Amino acid sequence: MNQKRTWTAGLVVIGDEILSGRTQDKNVAALAKWLNVQGIRLVEVRIVPDILERIAEAVNAVRAETDYLFTTGGIGPTHDDITVDAVSAALGVEVIVHPRARAMLEGYYKDKGGLTDARLRMARVPDGGELIENRMSGAPGIRHGNIFIMAGIPHIAEQMMDALTGQLEGGDPVLSDTIGCWTAESEVADILGAVEDAHPDSQIGSYPFFREGRVGANFVVRSTDADQLVACMNALSEALVANGQEVTPGGI
Amino acid sequence: MNQKRTWTAGLVVIGDEILSGRTQDKNVAALAKWLNVQGIRLVEVRIVPDILERIAEAVNAVRAETDYLFTTGGIGPTHDDITVDAVSAALGVEVIVHPRARAMLEGYYKDKGGLTDARLRMARVPDGGELIENRMSGAPGIRHGNIFIMAGIPHIAEQMMDALTGQLEGGDPVLSDTIGCWTAESEVADILGAVEDAHPDSQIGSYPFFREGRVGANFVVRSTDADQLVACMNALSEALVANGQEVTPGGI
After folding, report:
1. Interface residue A52 vs chain B (CB under 8 A)
2. Band of residue B208 on the pLDDT scale cut at 50, 70, 90
3. SS3 B120
4. CATH class of the A7-164 domain in this structure
5. Global pTM?
6. Can you tell me the ipTM of this complex?
7. Which tens digit of pLDDT belongs to each residue from B93-108?
8. Does A251 touch chain B (CB under 8 A)?
9. Which of A64, B12, B207, B248 has its CA 20 to 30 A from that of A44?
10. Phi, psi of A226, rounded to the nearest 5 degrees
């Protein structure tokens, strides 16, 4: 058994626009993939409305269980952007204007009408916070200890992830490999269970689909150990072939 | 002030595939939109891994705060499909094989190799559960009181929502209208706040974007009262025009 420490992260998505169905969230998947590469596992996501107490409560609940906490959304200049206030309340610290964030925003808005009160909102941080800079917008993200406050707009959030790449302590990255079959997953459910039981360092996920009028499924093996991953995938592939399945390495 | 009762729902998304970034969730947005039409507001989403205790804990935490609880994912035939077990644990009831679900699966699989043990897993329900039938797959969803256990595959989940349309008591549907401007939201943040303050029965959301090399934002007014919605939207539109903005009704 692999007894190495597993590093974990949680994400609080702040946004009425996600809960109303208006906006399709893309940050969960992007953060999850980025965290995998950092050797950190995303283990919980909560999507909460733009209500200060609800955000603060979720931040404290999730960070109590995880090594790192991320938030996305609610850091713009408008009245409904209250993430900094909520995280400050959760931490029990004051909201301050960060001098460097103010200077960055002054530069960014110099030829765009100047730094209004609304824009200055984006320089506010929980006291003790550092900036996560990005090239896409004047407004930085914020790091406060193991809390990372990120933008809601996906490509700005991704810029902030880029800025954090390699900065967070993690474990071994999660490796994965996929195999696909044009079969109902119920046909091979017993095989999946048996192979996973025989390979305790790997997990097998089953992802059924309907496509081109046929049922199929992809089976994803995950492990932090490359040798174990190969052993589990080989065993799965052999068991599927022995069951009469045609397998597609890499997935369908 | 509108003092009518607000009906609320929570969603627990069950799936390592979402937390690993492998699969882009689509059920949050689809359920949110469907709930809006039922007069029910989605107020919290939790995405949890395929771990029984974590699912059960999230189910109990979220249903304690909401009128309805939905789950998506984890109701297939494989070893990682443990939603029924987790909800049963959360409710403190036994898992039973539902006779009608068994009969449905027997029919569905009659010419597809018959009802194996793995497939029979899909007939299991928390004791007291009723079926949510759907035309897309042999496996039904499950209703247990105010808990709704739905498929993870989006088009099957949507079939289950269709089957539930009009079945859930709700309040007035949330109405919305959108207006767009090619402006930085920071330019008009004060206007948004002032108009919202003057219209307590409406909420204004601001959704900035970068498109075609320019910044813009859509402003969404939401209310359960049609007259209040129109009044708030008119006030917002007039205030934006008075600020020198060109507005696009319906959004950009």
Report:
1. no
2. confident
3. helix
4. alpha beta
5. 0.87
6. 0.85
7. 999 999 999 998 998 8
8. no
9. B207
10. -60, -40
